[in-house]
Known about the structure:
Blueprint: H1 3-22, H2 27-48, H3 70-100, H4 109-116, H5 119-123, H6 132-136, E1 143-144, E2 150-151
Antiparallel strand pairs: 1-2
Amino acid sequence: MTPTVVLPVIVGGLYAAGVYLLLDRSLTRVLLGFLLLGNATNLLVLSAGGPAGFAPILGYSEPEEMTDPLPQALILTAIVITFGVSAFVLAMIHRSWRLVHQEVVGTDEEDRRVAARSATDADELDPDDLDPEDRAAGHADSLHTPDGDDMGVDDVDLPAGTGAR
């Protein structure tokens, strides 16, 4: 295989492995998939940057023989951004482990029930079918009391120490 074929094959393999890992429920594998996608993108930008040449220093060589510094600057920026996002995802994994002692994202039964409904069932949705928590998550001007009376924004009890009103 020639060098011009090897790099696209490696980039394609990294993209495929990264997407595969991203689709897993394990947060550690999601992080590894994200890192593989970042590395594949960096290799893609590097290979699309053109042939290797001399350092882009004025007077060192002819302008036609110089390497374009823009892809290298983009890759350096992408490395920093990937590092920051990876640190954030790693913090989320740690927090998830501390809260539920597992790093696999579970299935929410309420989400499954909602996803199983067809589009015609959504038109026939009655507000009484919603859980009280779902109603509370709505807009403050559309809240209802347990008796069914409308509740305005002024009737909402705010937690102590919020500084509101």
